[in-house]
Every structure is written in structure tokens, then in C-alpha cells.
Amino acid sequence: MTPKISFLKSRDIREVWKREDKHFTPWLANPEPISMLLEACGIEAGENLTIEKEVKVPGVGRMLDVLVTINGNEMSEKIAIENQYSEGDHDHLTRALAYAVGHKARTIIVIAESHRAEFISVANYLNAAAAAHDEGISIFLVEVSAWSAEDADHVFPTFEVVARPDEWKTMVADTQGTKQGSQQK
Questions:
Q1: Three-state DSSP state, 10
Q2: 165 and which of 36, 102, 138, 139 could share a cystine (Cβ 3.0–4.6 Å)?
């Protein structure tokens, strides 16, 4: 018997998660979606994660959508996640940066249905600056989409990273910094 072959169809994410704040964020703030998001970003998280949703930002009176803490042997790493429906905008990007500073997060992830070219360029610029400084904040811009087979109720969400830190440049900068530090001694 020959299997039926068909392509997945794009679904409006509002059909899957009616509201961003009441449905998408609570879904995202669970181990499986967070693990899939971090994997898409190339972030090794292991199993020792703390996930908090709608976290108050100190001194601001606003809420970060999701704060993930990766608990390591010697230290922990915080990731601030801000999400929105529609196209990414300057408000969410700058809020995510402010929230990261407020929570001392070294990484932010901004999730939207799409990101404009100028925001991808800004993220790439800020990632290059972060690579040059020990205290920089890495930025990931991620597009979320939902897919299903025709006439099927099962939905397959996907995360596509459209901007990320350039790991090779960071590694080269780290290596050059180590060489310069040893030459100055």
C-alpha cells in the first residue's frame, strides 16, 4: 500500500493560541516548548532549567513574558524571552533589552510571527558589539509558525531563528583577547 503524501499547511497562530498573553505565553513556559526553542537557538540547556512566566522587572513595574534560568555546576545563566503576535517591533526589542538588563540576563530571545529586515540588522549589530565585550547581551530573533496536515487537528509549531550571535566571530574575539592578554604580561 502506498502512503498518502501531502504537504503541511500553514495555520494562523491565533487559531492555535487565541491570545498571546493568555494562551501562547503559558504554553511556551513549559519544559518541552522551551527546550525546542533553546535547541532551535543552539543553546545547550540540559535538564536543570527554571522557567518562570510573567516575571516582574525590578523597578519598572512591567512583566517579562518568560525568564529561563539554566542552572549549571558553578553558575547560572538567565535568558529573557519576550514574545508577540504579528511582526516584531521596536517596542518589544527594546523592552526585551531593558528586561534583560533588569534581570541580569546575558541572552534575550524575541519571538514574533516575522521580523523586519531592519530589526534583524539591529540584532546582528548588537550581537557583534556583544561579542566584543564580556558583558554583552546576545540577541536571538525567532519566528514562530504553526503547521498541520490537511483535515487534521494535530498542530506542529516551529521556531525559526532569523538572527543570532555569530559564534565563530565570538570564538575568534575570545581567542584574540586571550593572546593579547598573554602578550601583555
A1: strand
A2: 138
d(CA 85, CA 11): 13
53 backbone dihedrals φ, ψ, rounded to 5°: -115, 150
Average pLDDT per consecutive 10 residues, the chain (185 residues; last block may be shorter): 86 93 95 95 86 86 91 82 90 88 92 94 91 85 92 88 78 48 46
CA 63/CA 102 separation, integer angstroms: 11
Q: Euclidean distance between the first and final Cα of the chain, in Å?
A: 73
What are the residue ranges of helices labelled H in the chain? 13-16, 25-28, 31-41, 90-103, 117-131, 167-184
- At 110 the pLDDT is 96
C-alpha span between 160 and 108 (Å, rounded): 15
Task: Specify the DSSP class assigned to residue 84.
Answer: -
Give the bridge partners for 137, in sequence order: none
pLDDT for the residue numbered 166? 84
Give the residue carrying C-alpha cell 566571530.
Answer: 169
